[in-house]
Amino acid sequence: MADPVIAVLGPTAAGKSDLALRLARDLGGEIINADSMQLYRGMDIGTAKLTAGQCQGIPHHLLDVWDVRYPANVAEYQRMARDAIAAVTARGRVPILAGGSGLYLRAALDDLNFPGTDPAVRDRLEAELAARGPAELHARLAALDPGAAAGILPSNGRRIVRALEVIELSGQGFTATLPRYESLYPAVQIGLRVSRGELDARIAARVDRMWQAGLVDEVRGLERAGLREGRTASRALGYAQVLRFLAGEWSEGEAREQTVRATRRFARRQESWFRRDPRVIWLDAGPGADLPAQAVATIDRCGSPSAGSRSTSSPSTNSASASSRRGTAPRTTS
Question: What residue numbers bound the domain in which 276 lies?
Answer without folding.
Answer: 5-111+184-307
